[in-house]
Specification:
The protein is 78% helix and 0% strand. It is mostly helical. The two termini are 32 Å apart.
C-alpha cells in the first residue's frame, strides 16, 4: 500500500496548482460549450453527434501533450524533479500522480458535454466510447510532447512548444471537421497524423462512421505509441545525474 501513499502525495502536490489556476477549468468548459454550439449550428444533430466524442478524445490528447508535459518539464528544470528522484518514488508513481493531480482540467469538458449528449438524445454510448479512447490519446500526446520537452533547457520554451503542438494536431488536420472533405490521396496520408487516426477510431466506435480503413487508423496509432514511447524513454533520466 505504500506506493498508493506515494502516488497520493504527488497527486495532492500537483492539485495545489489546480486550486491556484481554477480559471483554466472554466476555460476548458467554455471551449467545450463553444465547440458544441458551433457543431450544432453548422450541421445540427448529424455533426454534433460526431463532434462530442471526438472533442472529448482530443481534450485528453491536449491534456497529455500540454498540461502533463508542461508539468513534468517545469518540474525537471526547476529541480523539483531531483527531489522526486531522491525520494522513494518510481517514475511510474510520479507520472500517475501528475496525471491524477491535474485531472480536474480534463473532467471539465466531460462534465459539460455529457448532459448535452443526453439532452440531444445522443446516448451515453458516445461519452463511454470517448472515455475508452481518451487514455490512449492522453498517453500518446504525453509521449510525443515529452520526447521534445525533456530536451529543453530554457523554461520559457516549454509552453512555446506544447501549445502550438496541440493546436497544430487538433485544429489544422481533419479531426473536428470530417475527413471526407479531403481528396482521396490526402485522406490516406492524413491518417499518419495521430490525432486523425484517433478521431477515426472514435467515430467508428461511437457512431459507426469511418472514412478510411479502421485497420489503417489502428496501425497508425500503434506505430505512434511505440515510436513516441521509445523516443521519450531515450531522453528520460530517472536518476541523479552527475
Amino acid at each position: 500500500m505504500k506506493f498508493l501513499w506515494r502516488i497520493l502525495g504527488v497527486t495532492l502536490f500537483n492539485f495545489t496548482f489546480v486550486k491556484r489556476q481554477w480559471m483554466w477549468i472554466a476555460q476548458e468548459a467554455m471551449f467545450a460549450i463553444s465547440i458544441a454550439m458551433l457543431a450544432y449550428g453548422w450541421g445540427g444533430y448529424t455533426v454534433i453527434r460526431s463532434t462530442i466524442p471526438v472533442y472529448i478524445m482530443i481534450s485528453a490528447w491536449g491534456f497529455g501533450a500540454n498540461l502533463v508535459a508542461q508539468t513534468v518539464g517545469y518540474d525537471r528544470i526547476s529541480r523539483e524533479w531531483e527531489r522526486m528522484i531522491a525520494s522513494r518514488l518510481t517514475v511510474f508513481e510520479y507520472f500517475i500522480g501528475v496525471v491524477l493531480g491535474t485531472t480536474p482540467f480534463i473532467l471539465s469538458p466531460i462534465a459539460i458535454l455529457t448532459p448535452i449528449a443526453i439532452a440531444l438524445d445522443l446516448g451515453l454510448k458516445t461519452i463511454a466510447i470517448a472515455l475508452l479512447v481518451s487514455p490512449i490519446a492522453m498517453a500518446l500526446g504525453a509521449f510525443l510532447s515529452l520526447a521534445i520537452v525533456l530536451r529543453i533547457k530554457n523554461p520559457m520554451n516549454i509552453s512555446a512548444i506544447t501549445n502550438p503542438l496541440v493546436i497544430a494536431t487538433t485544429f489544422l488536420p481533419p479531426v473536428l471537421y470530417p475527413l471526407a472533405i479531403l481528396p482521396e490521396p490526402l485522406r490516406i496520408a492524413s491518417i499518419a497524423i495521430p490525432t486523425v487516426a484517433l478521431a477515426e477510431i472514435t467515430r467508428f466506435m461511437s457512431i459507426g462512421a469511418c472514412t478510411t480503413s479502421l485497420e489503417l487508423s489502428i496501425a497508425s496509432t500503434a506505430i505512434w505509441l511505440i515510436a513516441t514511447a521509445i523516443a521519450m524513454i531515450k531522453v528520460l533520466r530517472w536518476g541523479l545525474e552527475p
